[in-house]
Amino acid sequence: MLVSIPYGIYALEFVYLAIHAGRYQMPKASYSKRFPVTIQLPTHDERYVINRLIDSCIAMAREYGSDLVQILILDDSADDTVNLAESSVEKYRQMGFDIDLIHRQPYWEGFKPGKLRDALRLTKHPFIALFDADFIPSNDFLSRVMPYFEDPKVALVQCRWTHVNRDYNLITKAISIGYDGHHMIEQPGRFYGGLFTNFNGSGGVIRKSALEEAGGWQTDTLAEDLDASIRMKLLGWEMLYLRDIEVPGEVPPTILAVKRQQERWASGTIRVCRKLSLPILRSNQLTLRQRIEALIHISQYAIHPCMFLSFVIAAAGGLFDVRLPTYGLISYFNMRSLAEYFLTHPYWIIFNAAVLLRALLFWLVYVYALKLQHLDVKRQLRALTACGLIGFGLSFCDTIAVFRGFFGRSSGVFLRTPKYKIEKQSDTWKDKKYRLPLSKTFYGEVTLVALAVLSTIAAAINGNIGVVPILFPYLFGYLYLVESTLKER
What we know:
With 489 residues, this protein is an alpha/beta fold. Helix content is 54%, strand content 10%. It has 18 helices and 7 strands. Strands 3-2-1-4-6-5-7 form a 7-stranded mixed β-sheet, with helices on both faces. Helix 11 crosses helix 16 (395-407). The longest helix has 28 residues, at 255-282.
Protein backbone atom coordinates (compact mmCIF):
# COMPACT_ATOMS: atom_id res chain seq x y z
CA MET A 1 0.00 0.00 0.00
CA LEU A 2 2.75 2.47 0.95
CA VAL A 3 4.61 1.73 -2.30
CA SER A 4 1.48 2.46 -4.32
CA ILE A 5 0.95 5.97 -2.95
CA PRO A 6 4.06 7.56 -4.60
CA TYR A 7 3.09 5.96 -7.92
CA GLY A 8 -0.20 7.81 -7.86
CA ILE A 9 1.32 11.11 -6.71
CA TYR A 10 4.06 11.27 -9.36
CA ALA A 11 1.81 9.95 -12.13
CA LEU A 12 -0.94 12.45 -11.43
CA GLU A 13 1.58 15.30 -11.21
CA PHE A 14 2.89 14.33 -14.65
CA VAL A 15 -0.64 14.48 -16.09
CA TYR A 16 -1.30 17.78 -14.30
CA LEU A 17 1.80 19.31 -15.87
CA ALA A 18 0.89 17.89 -19.29
CA ILE A 19 -2.45 19.72 -19.13
CA HIS A 20 -0.68 23.00 -18.41
CA ALA A 21 1.99 22.29 -21.05
CA GLY A 22 -0.73 22.07 -23.68
CA ARG A 23 -1.74 25.64 -22.83
CA TYR A 24 1.79 27.03 -22.78
CA GLN A 25 2.39 30.31 -24.59
CA MET A 26 5.75 31.93 -25.17
CA PRO A 27 6.09 35.01 -22.94
CA LYS A 28 6.69 38.26 -24.78
CA ALA A 29 9.69 40.54 -24.31
CA SER A 30 10.78 43.94 -25.51
CA TYR A 31 13.73 44.01 -27.89
CA SER A 32 14.96 47.49 -27.06
CA LYS A 33 18.20 46.79 -25.19
CA ARG A 34 21.17 44.44 -25.21
CA PHE A 35 22.78 43.69 -21.85
CA PRO A 36 26.46 42.71 -21.52
CA VAL A 37 26.90 38.99 -20.88
CA THR A 38 29.62 36.63 -19.70
CA ILE A 39 29.46 33.23 -21.36
CA GLN A 40 30.83 30.48 -19.12
CA LEU A 41 31.82 27.10 -20.54
CA PRO A 42 32.62 24.47 -17.86
CA THR A 43 34.67 21.69 -19.48
CA HIS A 44 36.56 18.58 -18.47
CA ASP A 45 38.28 16.22 -20.95
CA GLU A 46 36.29 17.38 -24.00
CA ARG A 47 38.78 16.95 -26.85
CA TYR A 48 36.11 16.06 -29.42
CA VAL A 49 33.71 18.94 -28.78
CA ILE A 50 35.73 21.80 -27.28
CA ASN A 51 36.45 23.59 -30.57
CA ARG A 52 32.85 23.20 -31.75
CA LEU A 53 31.65 24.75 -28.48
CA ILE A 54 34.06 27.69 -28.64
CA ASP A 55 33.33 28.34 -32.32
CA SER A 56 29.57 28.43 -31.73
CA CYS A 57 29.97 30.86 -28.81
CA ILE A 58 32.24 33.10 -30.88
CA ALA A 59 29.61 33.17 -33.63
CA MET A 60 27.00 34.04 -31.03
CA ALA A 61 29.19 36.84 -29.61
CA ARG A 62 29.82 38.20 -33.10
CA GLU A 63 26.10 38.35 -33.84
CA TYR A 64 25.20 39.87 -30.45
CA GLY A 65 28.11 42.30 -30.33
CA SER A 66 31.59 41.19 -29.34
CA ASP A 67 32.05 44.30 -27.18
CA LEU A 68 29.15 43.08 -25.02
CA VAL A 69 30.39 39.51 -24.49
CA GLN A 70 33.07 37.96 -22.31
CA ILE A 71 33.82 34.25 -22.79
CA LEU A 72 35.34 32.20 -19.96
CA ILE A 73 36.35 28.59 -20.57
CA LEU A 74 36.41 26.90 -17.16
CA ASP A 75 38.55 23.84 -17.74
CA ASP A 76 39.69 21.02 -15.46
CA SER A 77 40.98 18.73 -18.20
CA ALA A 78 43.79 16.29 -17.66
CA ASP A 79 44.29 15.55 -21.37
CA ASP A 80 44.97 17.53 -24.55
CA THR A 81 41.64 19.38 -24.30
CA VAL A 82 43.48 22.23 -22.61
CA ASN A 83 45.91 22.53 -25.54
CA LEU A 84 43.08 22.58 -28.07
CA ALA A 85 41.26 25.22 -26.04
CA GLU A 86 44.39 27.36 -25.67
CA SER A 87 44.88 27.39 -29.45
CA SER A 88 41.30 28.54 -30.03
CA VAL A 89 41.51 31.15 -27.29
CA GLU A 90 44.71 32.63 -28.70
CA LYS A 91 43.27 32.73 -32.21
CA TYR A 92 40.08 34.52 -31.18
CA ARG A 93 41.82 36.84 -28.74
CA GLN A 94 43.99 38.12 -31.61
CA MET A 95 40.77 38.78 -33.51
CA GLY A 96 39.63 41.10 -30.72
CA PHE A 97 37.28 38.84 -28.73
CA ASP A 98 37.28 38.96 -24.91
CA ILE A 99 38.00 35.31 -24.25
CA ASP A 100 40.05 33.53 -21.55
CA LEU A 101 40.88 30.00 -20.49
CA ILE A 102 40.82 29.28 -16.75
CA HIS A 103 42.56 25.96 -16.20
CA ARG A 104 42.43 24.53 -12.68
CA GLN A 105 45.16 22.05 -11.88
CA PRO A 106 46.21 19.77 -10.25
CA TYR A 107 42.91 19.19 -8.45
CA TRP A 108 39.23 19.35 -9.39
CA GLU A 109 37.89 20.82 -6.16
CA GLY A 110 34.13 21.21 -6.02
CA PHE A 111 33.63 19.71 -9.49
CA LYS A 112 31.40 21.77 -11.81
CA PRO A 113 29.87 23.99 -9.09
CA GLY A 114 33.40 24.60 -7.80
CA LYS A 115 34.46 25.87 -11.23
CA LEU A 116 31.42 28.09 -11.50
CA ARG A 117 31.96 29.43 -7.98
CA ASP A 118 35.60 30.26 -8.70
CA ALA A 119 34.66 31.95 -11.97
CA LEU A 120 32.26 34.44 -10.37
CA ARG A 121 35.10 36.71 -9.29
CA LEU A 122 36.36 36.78 -12.91
CA THR A 123 32.93 37.51 -14.36
CA LYS A 124 32.81 41.06 -15.68
CA HIS A 125 29.20 41.35 -16.73
CA PRO A 126 25.87 41.26 -14.84
CA PHE A 127 24.51 38.21 -16.69
CA ILE A 128 25.93 34.70 -17.11
CA ALA A 129 25.10 32.40 -20.03
CA LEU A 130 26.02 28.77 -19.36
CA PHE A 131 26.63 25.98 -21.86
CA ASP A 132 27.95 22.50 -21.22
CA ALA A 133 30.53 21.12 -23.64
CA ASP A 134 28.08 19.09 -25.73
CA PHE A 135 25.84 22.07 -26.61
CA ILE A 136 25.82 24.10 -29.82
CA PRO A 137 23.99 27.39 -29.16
CA SER A 138 22.65 29.22 -32.19
CA ASN A 139 24.04 32.56 -33.33
CA ASP A 140 20.92 34.44 -32.23
CA PHE A 141 20.60 32.84 -28.78
CA LEU A 142 21.64 35.93 -26.80
CA SER A 143 19.73 38.28 -29.09
CA ARG A 144 16.52 36.38 -28.39
CA VAL A 145 17.02 35.67 -24.68
CA MET A 146 18.55 38.81 -23.18
CA PRO A 147 15.56 41.16 -23.74
CA TYR A 148 13.62 39.16 -21.14
CA PHE A 149 15.94 40.55 -18.47
CA GLU A 150 14.49 44.02 -18.89
CA ASP A 151 12.12 42.81 -16.19
CA PRO A 152 14.22 43.41 -13.05
CA LYS A 153 12.44 40.57 -11.21
CA VAL A 154 13.69 37.89 -13.63
CA ALA A 155 16.64 35.92 -12.23
CA LEU A 156 17.03 33.29 -14.91
CA VAL A 157 15.82 32.20 -18.31
CA GLN A 158 15.96 28.54 -19.32
CA CYS A 159 15.55 27.43 -22.94
CA ARG A 160 14.57 24.08 -24.39
CA TRP A 161 17.14 21.40 -25.06
CA THR A 162 16.94 19.72 -28.46
CA HIS A 163 19.03 16.81 -29.70
CA VAL A 164 21.50 17.06 -32.54
CA ASN A 165 21.98 13.26 -32.60
CA ARG A 166 18.42 12.20 -31.83
CA ASP A 167 18.25 9.66 -34.66
CA TYR A 168 21.74 8.21 -34.21
CA ASN A 169 20.65 4.92 -32.61
CA LEU A 170 17.83 3.46 -30.55
CA ILE A 171 19.42 4.62 -27.29
CA THR A 172 19.57 8.26 -28.41
CA LYS A 173 16.02 8.09 -29.75
CA ALA A 174 14.76 6.71 -26.45
CA ILE A 175 16.69 9.13 -24.24
CA SER A 176 15.59 12.06 -26.42
CA ILE A 177 11.99 11.13 -25.62
CA GLY A 178 12.90 11.09 -21.94
CA TYR A 179 14.43 14.57 -22.23
CA ASP A 180 11.33 15.70 -24.13
CA GLY A 181 9.23 14.74 -21.13
CA HIS A 182 11.09 17.32 -19.08
CA HIS A 183 11.49 20.06 -21.68
CA MET A 184 8.17 19.70 -23.50
CA ILE A 185 5.93 18.77 -20.54
CA GLU A 186 7.40 19.42 -17.09
CA GLN A 187 9.17 22.75 -17.59
CA PRO A 188 6.48 24.49 -19.70
CA GLY A 189 3.78 22.94 -17.50
CA ARG A 190 5.36 24.33 -14.36
CA PHE A 191 5.95 27.72 -15.94
CA TYR A 192 2.43 28.12 -17.33
CA GLY A 193 0.93 26.78 -14.11
CA GLY A 194 2.77 29.34 -12.00
CA LEU A 195 4.86 26.64 -10.33
CA PHE A 196 8.58 26.31 -9.70
CA THR A 197 10.68 26.47 -12.89
CA ASN A 198 14.36 25.60 -12.50
CA PHE A 199 17.63 26.09 -14.32
CA ASN A 200 18.89 22.96 -16.10
CA GLY A 201 22.59 23.77 -15.89
CA SER A 202 23.00 24.54 -19.60
CA GLY A 203 21.20 26.48 -22.30
CA GLY A 204 20.16 29.33 -20.04
CA VAL A 205 21.12 32.73 -18.64
CA ILE A 206 21.32 33.81 -14.97
CA ARG A 207 21.32 37.27 -13.42
CA LYS A 208 24.58 37.44 -11.46
CA SER A 209 23.20 39.62 -8.66
CA ALA A 210 20.33 37.19 -8.00
CA LEU A 211 22.74 34.27 -7.85
CA GLU A 212 25.05 36.09 -5.46
CA GLU A 213 22.15 37.20 -3.26
CA ALA A 214 21.10 33.55 -2.96
CA GLY A 215 24.58 32.48 -1.83
CA GLY A 216 26.22 31.77 -5.19
CA TRP A 217 27.18 28.33 -6.43
CA GLN A 218 27.50 25.82 -3.61
CA THR A 219 29.48 22.58 -3.78
CA ASP A 220 27.49 20.39 -1.37
CA THR A 221 25.39 18.82 -4.13
CA LEU A 222 25.92 17.48 -7.65
CA ALA A 223 22.76 19.31 -8.80
CA GLU A 224 24.06 22.85 -8.40
CA ASP A 225 21.61 24.17 -11.02
CA LEU A 226 18.53 22.96 -9.13
CA ASP A 227 20.03 24.02 -5.80
CA ALA A 228 20.72 27.61 -6.93
CA SER A 229 17.32 27.86 -8.63
CA ILE A 230 15.47 27.04 -5.43
CA ARG A 231 17.53 29.42 -3.34
CA MET A 232 16.81 32.25 -5.77
CA LYS A 233 13.11 31.40 -5.88
CA LEU A 234 12.91 31.42 -2.09
CA LEU A 235 14.10 35.03 -2.21
CA GLY A 236 11.28 35.98 -4.55
CA TRP A 237 13.11 36.03 -7.90
CA GLU A 238 11.21 35.04 -11.04
CA MET A 239 12.21 32.37 -13.59
CA LEU A 240 11.17 32.01 -17.21
CA TYR A 241 11.03 28.96 -19.45
CA LEU A 242 11.22 29.61 -23.20
CA ARG A 243 10.12 26.46 -24.98
CA ASP A 244 10.33 28.03 -28.44
CA ILE A 245 14.04 28.90 -28.16
CA GLU A 246 15.99 25.72 -28.84
CA VAL A 247 19.52 24.86 -27.74
CA PRO A 248 20.87 21.78 -29.55
CA GLY A 249 23.03 19.35 -27.62
CA GLU A 250 24.22 15.75 -27.76
CA VAL A 251 22.37 12.84 -26.19
CA PRO A 252 24.56 10.08 -24.67
CA PRO A 253 24.87 7.37 -27.36
CA THR A 254 25.62 4.47 -24.98
CA ILE A 255 23.69 2.90 -22.12
CA LEU A 256 26.73 3.16 -19.84
CA ALA A 257 26.85 6.92 -20.40
CA VAL A 258 23.09 7.17 -19.82
CA LYS A 259 23.40 5.31 -16.53
CA ARG A 260 26.25 7.51 -15.36
CA GLN A 261 24.32 10.66 -16.19
CA GLN A 262 21.13 9.46 -14.54
CA GLU A 263 22.93 8.32 -11.40
CA ARG A 264 24.53 11.75 -11.04
CA TRP A 265 21.21 13.54 -11.57
CA ALA A 266 19.40 11.22 -9.14
CA SER A 267 21.99 11.58 -6.40
CA GLY A 268 22.27 15.34 -6.84
CA THR A 269 18.51 15.96 -6.95
CA ILE A 270 17.86 13.94 -3.81
CA ARG A 271 20.70 15.76 -2.07
CA VAL A 272 18.93 19.04 -2.93
CA CYS A 273 15.68 17.56 -1.59
CA ARG A 274 17.43 16.70 1.65
CA LYS A 275 18.98 20.17 1.85
CA LEU A 276 16.07 22.44 0.91
CA SER A 277 12.79 20.67 1.74
CA LEU A 278 12.43 22.46 5.07
CA PRO A 279 13.21 25.92 3.63
CA ILE A 280 10.57 25.28 0.96
CA LEU A 281 7.98 24.26 3.55
CA ARG A 282 8.74 27.36 5.64
CA SER A 283 8.85 29.79 2.71
CA ASN A 284 6.63 32.84 2.71
CA GLN A 285 7.43 33.46 -0.97
CA LEU A 286 5.60 30.33 -2.15
CA THR A 287 1.92 29.47 -2.04
CA LEU A 288 0.81 26.14 -0.58
CA ARG A 289 0.28 24.78 -4.09
CA GLN A 290 3.77 25.86 -5.13
CA ARG A 291 5.33 24.32 -2.03
CA ILE A 292 3.60 20.99 -2.54
CA GLU A 293 4.56 20.79 -6.22
CA ALA A 294 8.13 21.91 -5.48
CA LEU A 295 8.52 19.08 -2.97
CA ILE A 296 7.17 16.59 -5.50
CA HIS A 297 9.54 18.08 -8.06
CA ILE A 298 12.75 17.77 -6.03
CA SER A 299 11.83 14.32 -4.69
CA GLN A 300 10.89 12.85 -8.08
CA TYR A 301 13.82 10.42 -8.20
CA ALA A 302 12.33 8.75 -5.11
CA ILE A 303 10.06 6.94 -7.56
CA HIS A 304 12.99 4.67 -8.44
CA PRO A 305 13.29 3.07 -5.00
CA CYS A 306 9.51 2.58 -5.12
CA MET A 307 9.85 0.92 -8.52
CA PHE A 308 12.67 -1.31 -7.32
CA LEU A 309 10.73 -2.26 -4.20
CA SER A 310 7.78 -3.14 -6.45
CA PHE A 311 10.03 -5.56 -8.30
CA VAL A 312 11.31 -7.06 -5.05
CA ILE A 313 7.75 -7.56 -3.78
CA ALA A 314 6.66 -9.12 -7.07
CA ALA A 315 9.74 -11.37 -7.18
CA ALA A 316 9.08 -12.54 -3.61
CA GLY A 317 5.46 -13.14 -4.57
CA GLY A 318 6.54 -15.36 -7.45
CA LEU A 319 9.22 -17.28 -5.56
CA PHE A 320 7.24 -17.85 -2.37
CA ASP A 321 3.81 -18.17 -3.97
CA VAL A 322 2.24 -15.12 -2.34
CA ARG A 323 -1.15 -14.93 -4.00
CA LEU A 324 -2.80 -11.98 -5.64
CA PRO A 325 -6.61 -11.84 -5.38
CA THR A 326 -8.14 -13.98 -8.13
CA TYR A 327 -11.74 -14.15 -9.20
CA GLY A 328 -13.63 -16.93 -10.90
CA LEU A 329 -16.28 -16.22 -13.49
CA ILE A 330 -18.95 -16.31 -10.79
CA SER A 331 -17.16 -13.50 -8.94
CA TYR A 332 -17.49 -11.21 -11.90
CA PHE A 333 -21.26 -11.47 -11.62
CA ASN A 334 -21.44 -11.72 -7.86
CA MET A 335 -20.91 -8.18 -6.59
CA ARG A 336 -21.17 -9.21 -2.96
CA SER A 337 -18.37 -11.74 -3.36
CA LEU A 338 -16.29 -9.19 -5.29
CA ALA A 339 -16.86 -6.55 -2.61
CA GLU A 340 -15.87 -8.96 0.14
CA TYR A 341 -12.63 -9.80 -1.65
CA PHE A 342 -11.82 -6.12 -2.19
CA LEU A 343 -12.47 -5.27 1.46
CA THR A 344 -10.42 -8.15 2.81
CA HIS A 345 -7.60 -8.18 0.20
CA PRO A 346 -7.31 -4.64 -1.23
CA TYR A 347 -3.54 -4.27 -1.21
CA TRP A 348 -2.58 -6.36 -4.20
CA ILE A 349 -5.40 -4.79 -6.21
CA ILE A 350 -4.20 -1.28 -5.43
CA PHE A 351 -0.59 -2.30 -6.04
CA ASN A 352 -1.34 -3.71 -9.50
CA ALA A 353 -3.53 -0.75 -10.39
CA ALA A 354 -0.81 1.72 -9.36
CA VAL A 355 1.87 0.00 -11.45
CA LEU A 356 -0.41 -0.25 -14.48
CA LEU A 357 -1.64 3.32 -14.08
CA ARG A 358 1.88 4.69 -13.98
CA ALA A 359 2.87 2.68 -17.08
CA LEU A 360 -0.20 3.87 -18.98
CA LEU A 361 0.28 7.52 -18.03
CA PHE A 362 3.95 7.25 -18.96
CA TRP A 363 3.00 6.24 -22.49
CA LEU A 364 0.28 8.84 -22.88
CA VAL A 365 2.33 11.79 -21.65
CA TYR A 366 5.39 10.95 -23.73
CA VAL A 367 3.21 10.40 -26.78
CA TYR A 368 1.78 13.85 -26.09
CA ALA A 369 5.32 15.29 -25.90
CA LEU A 370 6.02 13.82 -29.36
CA LYS A 371 2.79 15.27 -30.73
CA LEU A 372 3.66 18.72 -29.40
CA GLN A 373 6.79 18.51 -31.55
CA HIS A 374 4.80 17.28 -34.55
CA LEU A 375 6.75 14.01 -34.61
CA ASP A 376 5.18 10.88 -36.10
CA VAL A 377 4.23 8.71 -33.12
CA LYS A 378 4.01 5.53 -35.21
CA ARG A 379 7.62 5.95 -36.30
CA GLN A 380 8.62 6.43 -32.65
CA LEU A 381 7.01 3.25 -31.25
CA ARG A 382 10.30 1.35 -30.96
CA ALA A 383 11.92 4.33 -29.26
CA LEU A 384 8.95 4.68 -26.90
CA THR A 385 9.26 1.01 -26.00
CA ALA A 386 13.01 1.36 -25.43
CA CYS A 387 12.43 4.47 -23.32
CA GLY A 388 10.03 2.51 -21.13
CA LEU A 389 12.41 -0.43 -20.79
CA ILE A 390 15.28 1.89 -19.88
CA GLY A 391 13.07 3.54 -17.27
CA PHE A 392 12.33 0.21 -15.58
CA GLY A 393 15.94 -0.94 -16.02
CA LEU A 394 17.35 2.20 -14.36
CA SER A 395 15.33 1.55 -11.20
CA PHE A 396 18.19 -0.46 -9.65
CA CYS A 397 21.16 1.86 -10.26
CA ASP A 398 19.08 4.97 -9.58
CA THR A 399 17.88 3.47 -6.30
CA ILE A 400 21.51 3.16 -5.20
CA ALA A 401 22.13 6.76 -6.32
CA VAL A 402 19.09 7.99 -4.40
CA PHE A 403 20.32 6.35 -1.19
CA ARG A 404 23.77 7.86 -1.71
CA GLY A 405 22.21 11.27 -2.16
CA PHE A 406 19.99 10.96 0.88
CA PHE A 407 22.38 9.33 3.32
CA GLY A 408 25.81 10.31 1.99
CA ARG A 409 27.84 12.73 4.08
CA SER A 410 29.49 14.40 1.08
CA SER A 411 28.12 15.78 -2.18
CA GLY A 412 29.36 12.68 -4.00
CA VAL A 413 31.85 12.31 -6.83
CA PHE A 414 31.12 14.00 -10.15
CA LEU A 415 31.52 11.36 -12.87
CA ARG A 416 31.32 13.14 -16.21
CA THR A 417 29.23 11.99 -19.13
CA PRO A 418 31.60 11.48 -22.09
CA LYS A 419 30.96 13.42 -25.29
CA TYR A 420 32.06 12.06 -28.65
CA LYS A 421 30.82 14.67 -31.17
CA ILE A 422 28.14 12.39 -32.57
CA GLU A 423 26.16 14.46 -35.08
CA LYS A 424 25.33 12.12 -37.98
CA GLN A 425 24.88 8.40 -38.66
CA SER A 426 28.42 7.91 -39.94
CA ASP A 427 29.98 9.25 -36.70
CA THR A 428 31.19 6.71 -34.15
CA TRP A 429 32.26 6.67 -30.51
CA LYS A 430 33.85 3.21 -30.56
CA ASP A 431 37.32 4.30 -31.71
CA LYS A 432 37.52 7.31 -29.38
CA LYS A 433 38.79 8.04 -25.89
CA TYR A 434 36.54 8.28 -22.83
CA ARG A 435 34.93 4.86 -23.30
CA LEU A 436 33.44 3.84 -19.99
CA PRO A 437 34.27 0.63 -18.11
CA LEU A 438 31.59 -1.75 -16.89
CA SER A 439 29.83 -0.24 -13.91
CA LYS A 440 29.41 -2.23 -10.71
CA THR A 441 25.66 -2.09 -11.13
CA PHE A 442 25.94 -4.16 -14.32
CA TYR A 443 26.51 -7.30 -12.28
CA GLY A 444 23.54 -6.43 -10.11
CA GLU A 445 21.39 -6.10 -13.23
CA VAL A 446 22.53 -9.53 -14.42
CA THR A 447 21.52 -10.94 -11.03
CA LEU A 448 18.14 -9.21 -11.22
CA VAL A 449 17.49 -10.70 -14.67
CA ALA A 450 18.13 -14.16 -13.24
CA LEU A 451 15.89 -13.41 -10.25
CA ALA A 452 13.09 -12.17 -12.51
CA VAL A 453 13.30 -15.29 -14.68
CA LEU A 454 13.24 -17.65 -11.66
CA SER A 455 10.33 -15.75 -10.10
CA THR A 456 8.36 -15.86 -13.33
CA ILE A 457 8.95 -19.59 -13.77
CA ALA A 458 8.01 -20.28 -10.14
CA ALA A 459 4.85 -18.20 -10.48
CA ALA A 460 3.87 -20.05 -13.66
CA ILE A 461 4.48 -23.48 -12.09
CA ASN A 462 2.42 -22.58 -9.03
CA GLY A 463 -0.36 -21.03 -11.07
CA ASN A 464 0.28 -17.64 -9.47
CA ILE A 465 -0.20 -15.82 -12.76
CA GLY A 466 -1.32 -12.56 -11.21
CA VAL A 467 2.24 -11.60 -10.25
CA VAL A 468 3.69 -12.10 -13.73
CA PRO A 469 2.45 -8.78 -15.27
CA ILE A 470 4.42 -6.89 -12.63
CA LEU A 471 7.58 -8.95 -13.17
CA PHE A 472 7.64 -8.64 -16.96
CA PRO A 473 8.50 -4.93 -17.36
CA TYR A 474 11.37 -5.27 -14.89
CA LEU A 475 12.62 -8.48 -16.44
CA PHE A 476 12.76 -6.93 -19.90
CA GLY A 477 14.02 -3.61 -18.55
CA TYR A 478 17.01 -5.13 -16.75
CA LEU A 479 17.59 -7.47 -19.69
CA TYR A 480 17.61 -4.53 -22.10
CA LEU A 481 20.27 -2.75 -20.06
CA VAL A 482 22.40 -5.90 -19.83
CA GLU A 483 22.10 -6.64 -23.54
CA SER A 484 22.85 -3.03 -24.54
CA THR A 485 25.87 -2.93 -22.24
CA LEU A 486 27.31 -6.12 -23.73
CA LYS A 487 26.80 -4.80 -27.28
CA GLU A 488 28.82 -1.73 -26.38
CA ARG A 489 31.86 -3.67 -25.20
